[in-house]
Amino acid sequence: DAGVIQSPRHEVTEMGQEVTLRCKLISGHNSLFWYRQTMMRGLELLIYFNNNVPIDDSGMPEDRFSAKMPNASFSTLKIQPSEPRDSAVYFCASSLLGARTQYFGPGTRLLVL
Amino acid sequence: TQLLEQSPQFLSIQEGENLTVYCNSSSVFSSLQWYRQEPGEGPVLLVTVVTGGEVKKLKRLTFQFGDARKDSSLHITAAQPGDTGLYLCAGASGGTSYGKLTFGQGTILTVHP
């Protein structure tokens, strides 16, 4: 069975550019979580969805960040405009609603120059 | 804001030694999880503890949840080079925030042959 799929795996962009990160949930899962990991701040929850509905976006750093679930199996995290301090590894994770186990994707390593 | 403090941040030991990683908070969690992350990959769940005082064993790994559900420990017996990685604890809040995890900063473990 395919796990959580993220693309791209690596992204290098220049400050001011728009960045879109993509995530495909495990089939049948209905909760989706976006995380950011840095050496300084560790793994932080940005936003999570249940049944395509955003439940908690208190971790989203600022208005430059937005996340959507256009359908039940796919999500995007957009940064516009990107800044060097956004450089990090971004993970998405999926789970069954109410389940304790989250399954993480391999991450997207973002470098903003 | 719920915080989880992990210690130590770094641990470098020889094969065969024992070690303990601690995860502490002033907040009560409905459950606590331990993850292991290898370079270039997402975290993978090792165990979930739910009941205060609970002890779970996974081969050479022993996990304990504090009686007050505010702290946890991970003990590895006779560490092996394959145990090398980043170990993360994560607390779940429960209630209306069910599914939302707060992660500790992580412990980077290196086991030398």
Description:
- With 113 residues, chain A is mostly beta strands.
- Chain A has no helices and 11 strands.
- Chain A has strands at residues 5-7, 10-13, 19-24, 31-38, 42-50, 53-56, 65-71, 74-79, 88-95, 103-104, 108-112.
- In chain A, a hairpin with a 2-residue loop joins strand 7 (65-71) and strand 8.
- Chain A is globular and about 35 Å long.
- The model of chain A has no long low-confidence stretch (mean pLDDT 94).
- Chain B has strands at residues 5-7, 10-14, 19-24, 31-37, 44-49, 55-58, 61-65, 71-76, 85-92, 101-103, 107-112.
- Chain B has 113 residues and is mainly β.
- Helices cover 0% and strands 52% of the residues of chain B.
- Chain B has no helices and 11 strands.
- In chain B, strands 2, 4, 5, 9, 10 and 11 form a 6-stranded mixed sheet that branches. Chain B has a 5-stranded antiparallel sheet with strand order 1-3-8-7-6, with no helix packed on it.
- The chains are: A mainly beta (113), B mainly beta (113).
- The A-B interface holds A 4, 31, 33, 42-45, 48, 50, 55-56, 91, 93, 95, 97-107 and B 31, 33, 40-45, 48, 88, 92, 97-106.
Could you give a short account of the major beta sheet of chain A? 7 strands, mixed
Rg of chain A, Cα atoms, Å: 13 Å
Shape of chain A: globular
Question: Based on CA inertia axes, which overall geometry of chain B fits?
Answer: globular
Q: Order of SSEs of chain B, N→C? A: EEEEEEEEEEE
Model regions low in confidence, pLDDT < 50 over at least 5 residues of chain A: none
Overall mean pLDDT score of chain A? 94
Average pLDDT of chain B, to the nearest integer?
Answer: 92
- According to DSSP, the number of beta strands of chain B is 11
Oligomeric status: heterodimer
What pair of chains forms the biggest interface?
Answer: A-B, 25 and 21 residues
The total of helices of chain A stands at: 0
Low-pLDDT sequence parts of chain B: none
Which structural class should the secondary elements of chain A be placed in?
A: mainly beta
